[in-house]
Amino acid sequence: MSLAGIYIHIPYCKQKCHYCNFYSFASNNYRELFVDALLNEINLRKNFLGKEKINTVYFGGGTPSLLNIDELNKIIQHLGDVFDLSDETETTLEANPDDLNAEKIHDLKKHTPINRLSIGVQSFFDDDLLYLNRIHNSKHAIDSIENAIKAGFHNMTVDLIYGIPGLTEKKWRENLRIFFDFNIKHLSSYSLTVEPKTALNALINKNKIKNIVEEESIRHFEILQEESDKHAFIHYEISNFAREGHYSKHNSIYWLGGHYSGFGPSAHSFNGKTRQWNVSNMKQYVESDTVDKIVREKETLTIQQQYNEYVMTSLRTSWGCDTLHIKNVFGDSFVKLFEKEAEKHILNNKLLKTESVYKLSKQAKLFADGIASDFFVF
Ligand code: SF4
Question: Is any ligand 1 atom within 6 A of the Cβ of residue 24?
Fold first, then answer.
């Protein structure tokens, strides 16, 4: 049975972080129309996943913790009316530390079905948070985690960013120490990247702030691997680490080729055959009254695209890329192509092979996307 999930995109933020290239904005535009527009989209697009049972609901953004308890419950209640959700559904809320005061966390725990928190800490140091233009400070970061633990949230993950100019190895180790001392079972950690059209890109180009040094990011990644090993965390996806049994069910759906329906402006959906993207424009989104107006682009994946996607996502995970799966789904010709390309990566120690499964070696993990692209067929 395949896994299926729902993603809800909440594009509001209090302030735009310098590195951010998500569809999000620091204003309340159309705020009073937004939740009803979401419910309307859920009604309009309810058949996209057929009758599949829903295993996960994920509120991402943007900053979903800006929604109040009534709004969250209204959306979750509606999802329950429309989809087959169960009491075991993993329901995650992405939250910024400055929103998670004791009262809000208590209300989330007691008065909503949210059972997993993803806290966007990024760093426990104020100078890093300032560089990133995050709205919270290190005290908010610590307090939010303590509040969540006190309120009884046992299923939690924290985001940390490395490769920030000024983040020394000592500070990075300290960030990781603080995280591991909380005994939280899941960590997502990303290398800071400079995306086009972000404030970070503009500020670096104008020499207003320091640029990223690639060697430092690589060193931070090595430290991250070392520390997660020490704490018995499994590096189960390039940017994700967890104790056994604490993997993100929702994100695993993306990595294992499962199906998902995304609601909200800019959200993506995939049902095994079709992949589609919603319009990234709030005005158009709230004014849309048909699926065609909400969905901006739609594509049916060719067999080559499906193969490329499988190689790309599977090589990023600890499950690896299985040539038996390639044979069953794509046929022998794709296995031959894969094995031919794999030979050179095995010789230079980037790939490890156990029976039919190929995985990236520890040192190759930072270059996962580049290596995977060598296997692409067009
Ligand atoms: S809080 Fe998240 S979505 Fe909002 S601007 Fe910052 S990185 Fe982007």
Answer: yes
| Atom 8 in ligand 1: residue holding the nearest Cα | 20
> Looking at domain 4-255, what is its CATH homologous superfamily?
Aldolase class I (3.20.20.70)
The sheet that has 4-10: what strands, in order across it?
A: 234-237, 240-242, 186-191, 156-162, 116-122, 84-95, 53-61, 4-10, 259-263, 268-270, 274-278, 295-300
Report the separation in Å between the CA atom of 16 and the middle of ligand 1, taken as the mean of its atom positions.
6
Q: Which own/partner contact pairs does 342-346 have at CB distance under 8 Å and 24+ positions apart?
A: 342/375, 345/371, 345/374
- Amino acid found at 172: W
24 CA to middle of ligand 1, Å?
7
Query: Is this structure's pTM higher than 0.85?
Result: yes
CATH hierarchy code of domain 303-374: 1.10.10
What are 173-218's pLDDT values in tens digits?
999 999 999 999 999 999 999 999 999 999 999 999 999 999 999 9
- Determine if ligand 1 sits within 6 Å of the CB of residue 199: no
Q: Which residue has the tokens 């993207």?
A: 277
**Ligand 1 in reach of 40 Cβ (< 6 A):** no
Are residues 64 and 22 in contact, defined by beta-carbon separation less than 8 angstroms? no
